Task: inverse folding
């Protein structure tokens, strides 16, 4: 049988789960999680290439509304672009990408493997910015392994030293603006859409989808996913959502979305500081955030976050010229590691 392209469904799920186990050894193989992540997500489709009943390549495609230049329009975000390890360099994955490029315009992607970053410009994608990842260590376990690798100091020495001294040096007081209140939410609702739009501080930004936000918190029995609304004198001025998870023995929190149309540094510092204070209660080792937007970057640095990595931001605009992007806002809400099983509160 020849190669067949399609979309993941109940009939092909078992073959996809086998493919995932061969291709992503560091991810969970639990089928309930795989089904939730790749089959049940609203606004998302997993495009697959099937040969002789086996999935041999995949490409994730998520559709939602974006601020794109001076307009709001539907765009696609690509993710999880993989080919089975023994079939790499055969062009199977490129066929999936070319079909997506013909079906959806524009497409947006962040980072990717070395192969991805080589292939995208060859396929006509344009690099339009950078997306730095910021990291804040909260407990000694977050820095023990890097310190041991660089200096040879064992974790049994570096961890208690950081816990006793370092976290106090990193802690900063959260300043609440006059009339400021924080409202915990289970997820981001449709009311936050008023914070996003052309002329509100960004020219490339995904508008949170309430169904997708609820889905992110809908993996039962694995901890918690939560959101915060920030109001000043009753008016919504910003929002954030977070997730806590375990990966490779490290408990981490990731800020999957944080936005305000305000440029006031005090607002951004209030939001970042509140989130950091909130996730400390989960006993996490590390907090991560992706930030392209200058006010958010400044607030993260204010709370001692440091840049750990930088990923390119890519756009496929079809035959049209890619619009100039001066103020992108792209975060972590689609990253697989931010959707892994959650750490329980300690």
Result:
């Amino acid at each position: 049988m020849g190669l067949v392209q399609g979309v993941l469904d109940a009939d092909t799920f078992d073959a996809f789960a086998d493919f995932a186990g061969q291709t992503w050894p560091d991810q969970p193989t639990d089928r309930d999680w795989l089904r939730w992540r790749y089959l049940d997500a609203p606004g998302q489709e997993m495009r697959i290439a099937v040969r002789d009943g086996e999935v041999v390549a995949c490409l994730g495609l998520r559709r939602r509304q974006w601020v794109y230049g001076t307009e709001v329009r539907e765009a696609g975000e690509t993710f999880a672009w993989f080919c089975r390890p023994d079939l790499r360099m055969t062009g199977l994955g490129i066929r999936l990408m070319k079909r997506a490029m013909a079906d959806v315009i524009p497409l947006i992607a962040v980072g990717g493997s070395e192969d991805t970053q080589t292939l995208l410009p060859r396929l006509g994608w344009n690099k339009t910015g950078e997306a730095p990842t910021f990291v804040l260590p909260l407990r000694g376990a977050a820095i023990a392994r890097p310190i041991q690798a660089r200096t040879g100091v064992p974790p049994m020495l570096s961890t208690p030293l950081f816990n006793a001294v370092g976290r106090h040096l990193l802690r900063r007081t959260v300043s609440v603006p006059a009339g400021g209140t924080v409202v915990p939410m289970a997820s981001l609702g449709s009311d936050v859409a008023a914070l996003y739009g052309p002329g509100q501080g960004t020219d490339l930004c995904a508008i949170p989808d309430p169904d997708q936000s609820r889905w992110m918190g809908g993996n039962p029995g694995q901890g918690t996913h939560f959101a915060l609304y920030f109001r000043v004198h009753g008016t919504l001025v910003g929002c954030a959502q977070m997730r806590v998870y375990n990966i490779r023995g490290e408990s981490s929190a990731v800020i999957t979305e944080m936005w305000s149309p305000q440029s006031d540094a005090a607002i951004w510092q209030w939001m970042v500081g509140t989130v950091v204070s909130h996730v400390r209660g989960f006993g996490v080792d590390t907090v991560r955030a992706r930030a392209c937007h200058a006010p958010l970057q400044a607030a993260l640095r204010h709370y001692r976050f440091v840049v750990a990595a930088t990923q390119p931001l890519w756009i496929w605009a079809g035959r049209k010229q890619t619009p100039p992007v001066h103020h992108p806002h792209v975060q972590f809400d689609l990253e697989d590691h931010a959707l892994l099983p959650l750490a329980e509160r300690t």
Notes: The chain has nine helices and 14 strands. Residues 103 and 241 are 31 Å apart (CA to CA). Confidence is low (pLDDT under 50) at residues 342-346. The chain has two domains: 4-129, 132-311+325-339.
